Amino acid sequence: YYIGVAFHTALPLTDMHAIKLARGYTAYEGVIKVGKKRIIVCECHLPWQSALLHDSAQATLLERYANEPYVVIAGDFNFLKVDCDKSYQLWKDAGFETANRGYLGDLVTCPCVGGCSNYLDNIFVKGGKILNTMVEQTTPAGYSWEDPHGSSDPEERKAWFAVNLSDHFPMISDIVFTF
Predict the structure, then answer these.
(1) CA angle 109, 111, 116 (to 5 degrees)
(2) Is residue 152 over pLDDT 50?
(3) How many CB atoms lie within 10 A of CB 60?
């Protein structure tokens, strides 16, 4: 059963469990233990269907991690174009550093055609430092990375998804925690 969740860490990830978000969306959380310190790691996919659902799921995560000193949250945040700056500011105000739209600038992670921004995917870090971030475009040479969601040609859509595992590209960050 594929749900698009992946964590890669040099240290063991334990205590994995699901967190219920709005409208049946689920985030997945685990813990990395370094001595007596705990780093909470969370993967999420926030609802895109409405601002109300999106904001509810975002508020759940922000509240959940408000008092945690070390947190990494990665995933598809589905920031809507109309609220993109406001959403980023909420995370920054909560003490999170942002990999996308942070000091590295804007990283296009999704060739979106709808009401969402092209900066849907992100990695937010609290209590640590993001050293670098990259977006891995997985489209093979000779193919367009632009998502044909708007295409009326079913063969074009089929060919695009044959070479792209998702309509998002993976983000990779190096993160350091100093205790």
Answers:
(1) 85
(2) yes
(3) 18
The two beta strands, 71-76 and 37-45, are parallel
Given a cut of 50, is residue 172 above it in pLDDT? yes
Q: Which residue stretches of 73-129 are H helix? A: 84-93
Coil, helix or strand for 138? Answer: coil
Taking alpha carbons only, the member of 157, 151, 80 closest to residue 114 is 80
Comparing C-alpha atoms, which of 37, 35, 1 is closest to residue 128? 37
Q: Is residue 159 scored above 80 in pLDDT?
A: no
At 94, the pLDDT band (50, 70, 90 cuts) reads very high
Report CA dihedral (77, 79, 83, 86) to the nearest 10 degrees. Answer: 40
Average pLDDT, the chain: 82
| Rg of the chain, C-alpha, whole Å | 17
Of all residues in the chain, what percent carry a pLDDT higher than 70?
77
Residue type, 77: F
Contact 28, 5 (CB under 8 A): yes
Give buried/exposed letters for 89-120 (b at 16+ CB in 10 A, else e). eebeeeebbbbbbbeeeebbbbbbeeebbbbb
